[in-house]
């Protein structure tokens, strides 16, 4: 058993097995707007937070891929928009030696999971600079979101009569 594991590790080091490496994490785009300031600071703070997240990926040269995680937050207090903040947190990943299904899962769930803590910290920092309380977003289960998206796509392709 140990010999098989050693052979597998040697194959990966020689470029024969699957490879995954994070090359770079960076902010691709950043936006903050507080349309009702300074008046909003004089209202009672009773926030309603709306979070939208999206991921996209594109192949780069060779076995490199860019994955972009977008977090868009709108916070309202009452009927007034306190602020709108958005971050596009991106990463460049070296990924090779994976079958199509595993590659899809890696790009659609695993990579966004790596990027999320960076995006969350960037968003909190941005909001604090606007003198609002940090958002402290809860972790996101990208595996579950990926599975839901696959299920939605398969349902649509199969002509399912399910209500969405």
UniProtKB/TrEMBL annotation:
Name of the featured protein: Protein-export protein SecB
Gene3D superfamilies referenced in this protein's UniProt entry, alphabetically: SecB-like
Xref: PANTHER family: PROTEIN-EXPORT PROTEIN SECB (PTHR36918:SF1), PTHR36918
Major location category of this protein: cytoplasm
Known function: One of the proteins required for the normal export of preproteins out of the cell cytoplasm. It is a molecular chaperone that binds to a subset of precursor proteins, maintaining them in a translocation-competent state. It also specifically binds to its receptor SecA.
Taxonomy of the source species: Bacteria, Pseudomonadati, Pseudomonadota, Gammaproteobacteria, Pseudomonadales
The protein's assembly and partners: Homotetramer, a dimer of dimers. One homotetramer interacts with 1 SecA dimer.
Keyword Chaperone: yes
Subcellular location: Cytoplasm
Assigned keywords, A-Z: Chaperone, Cytoplasm, Protein transport, Translocation, Transport
Transmembrane feature ranges: none
Family: Belongs to the SecB family.
NCBIfam families in alphabetical order: PRK05751.1-4, secB
Signal peptide range in chain numbering: none
């Amino acid at each position: 058993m140990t010999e098989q594991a050693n052979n597998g590790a040697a194959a990966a080091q020689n470029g024969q097995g699957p490879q995954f490496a994070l090359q770079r994490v960076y902010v691709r785009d950043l936006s903050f707007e507080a349309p009702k300031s300074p008046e909003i600071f004089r209202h009672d703070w009773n926030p309603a937070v709306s979070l939208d997240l999206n991921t996209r990926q594109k192949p780069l040269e060779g076995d490199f891929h860019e994955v972009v995680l977008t977090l868009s937050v709108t916070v309202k207090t009452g009927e007034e928009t306190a602020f709108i903040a958005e971050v596009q947190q991106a990463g460049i990943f070296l990924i090779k030696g994976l079958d199509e299904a595993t590659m899809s899962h890696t790009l659609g769930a695993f990579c966004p999971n790596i990027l999320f803590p960076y995006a969350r910290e960037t968003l909190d920092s941005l909001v604090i600079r606007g003198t609002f309380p940090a958002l402290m977003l809860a972790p996101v289960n990208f595996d579950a979101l990926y599975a839901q998206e696959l299920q939605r796509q398969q349902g649509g392709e199969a002509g399912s009569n399910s209500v969405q």
